[in-house]
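Next comes this protein.

***
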Amino acid sequence: MSIMETRMKLVVRGDERVEYPLDAETVRLGRERARTVPLNDPLVSREHAELCCVVGDARRQVWEIHDLGSTNGTYVNDVLLAGPRRLAVGDRIRVGNTVLVYEEIESGRGFRNLVAVLIALATLMGAIVAWRANVAIDEAAGARARGTTVLINLTQHETEVTSSLYQNLSAFTAYAWHLAMTQLLAADAQQTRDADWSSELEEDRLRQANLALAALDLVNVDYVRRADDPTAAQTFDRERFFATNMAEVATQTDLDYQAHYATSDREATVAERLTAVAVLLSVAIFFYTGATLATSWLKYVWAGIGVVAFGVGSLAAVLIEVGTRAG
């Protein structure tokens, strides 16, 4: 029987990993140097066991092992051979103190090359995601700092407007008091019959009137409420004064600190999500690396998990970026 391609191997797993490709139709295990797989083990017989390829073509090989009458016997998966037995990938063959594993040889370097490309892609995507997360962190910190600056400026402007309001209220209070005194003195002057006393009252009334006008000059009259009833007292609209002045300041200065804080929170959330994506991409790289080290069908499982992790991570990164731009 002609074997077109070596597809299987025995791997000795000890202090050092040694591989023996099964490249002949019959392979013997023993202590003689002439044996295909020489084993330096005193418990191994000179001719211990033999492997035969019972099915061999370019796509599939099936090997069978049987003991050659060894002193200590041959074990497959810790079961003593009583006759020929076909091997399955991953079977452990124990002869003496030596354990060999029946494994499949990769057909070419295609799989490893593919995994290498996948690792490179995951690494590149991880670097991009990490960079974008750092940008989001910087933007979040910058927006938070700007919001704090705006909040400080807002407090300063509110203090200034409040101070101006109190100055207007103080002047308006003085105006209202002097105006009331003027009206009282005028009423007293009309009621008195003493000419001298009436003259003094008139002088006091004029003085109070002048003081009222002087106080009124310090008041922003746009906010003085004049009641429809002439006898009703005038009032100063403090709420409209504060709101109008703050609105005027807002036209010249940014006072919306909440918008900056909202931007900071949004970018911080983006950074957190991208960090999670970066971790997921790292998981993909971990499984890709495991696929290069795994044997038999396990390497495909590891690679498959890596592909899923990479796909989910990449999709999440795209959705996060699209959501950020749309928001």
Remarks:
- The mean pLDDT is 86.
- The longest strand covers residues 49-56.
- The two ends are 69 Å apart (CA to CA).
- The chain has two domains: 8-105, 113-305.
